[in-house]
Amino acid sequence: MSHVVFFLVPGVHLLDLAGPAQVFSTAADFGHPYTLGYVAERPEVVTAQGLPLVTRLDWPELGPEDLIVVPGWRALTLAEGPRIDEASLRALRDHHARGGTVASVCAGADALGRAGLLDGRRCTTHHDVQDELARRHPRAAVVRDVLYTEDDRVVTSAGIASGIDLALHLVATRHGPAVAARVARDMVVYARRNGHEPQASAMLRHRSHLDDTVHRAQDLLDARFDHPVPLPELAAAVGVSERTLTRLFARATGGLTPLRYQQALRLERAEHLISHGVTVDAAARAVGFEDARMLRRLRARAS
């Protein structure tokens, strides 16, 4: 069981909170055991949009598999943001020290900075306050104009809706891209990655279309990207001819064939594994390549 605890401050933005909460709630609906909780320093927190929220005051017992998310709040500058007690900042530090993950949306990065969790780590926030975040926390490596960053279990995202992208990334990391794609589709949003792969997600680049047949084919390829999926089998599964599927797929994805799309998924996953210390040969086997030479060719072509 993974707990996702949202730490709320006065003036919290509803979408900063509701977006990630919906992602993990939807993942739970699909059988992944997430329990959501809400903690604040007062029993009622009024959001920036005027909606009062009732929260608990005590932190639940958390383990390394659990996540704390700090949504952002309304303020013209980070310096004008709400006061946060040292006990709350210590809770953030202690969770990370025990092996847990801590995340923020928008101005919530400043709370992580106050807790000392941004020191020496890559981070980001809303473009309006990126420079101020860098000034307030000079030991942080602020990355500008990206959706989110991840560095040593500290995950930060840009403004408002990017919290959804951050949460989808965490779901993909824990459960695979097919689960993240399913959650994203249920929420009618795009699944995407960022960080060391800025704007490069195959799901982002090739899911921004409205062709339901191609989406269904992509769902199957996402779920079985590491196994052979012959074109006749794929076409039969979505109820069209091979020729029709190839034509629709190319039109929807900017010229890709189903095989090329599957290779893009494999390459993306292999790069993730390699960035975490897996050898090229092992990564190739893990994503379904029979020969590591194919992975090396695809990496060379993409560089």
TrEMBL record:
Pfam families associated with the record: DJ-1_PfpI, HTH_18
Protein origin, superkingdom: Bacteria
HTH araC/xylS-type domain residues: 215-303
Tagged with keyword Disulfide bond: no
Annotated keywords: Transcription, Transcription regulation
MF-aspect GO terms: DNA-binding transcription factor activity; sequence-specific DNA binding
Protein name: AraC family transcriptional regulator
Native organism: Streptomyces populi
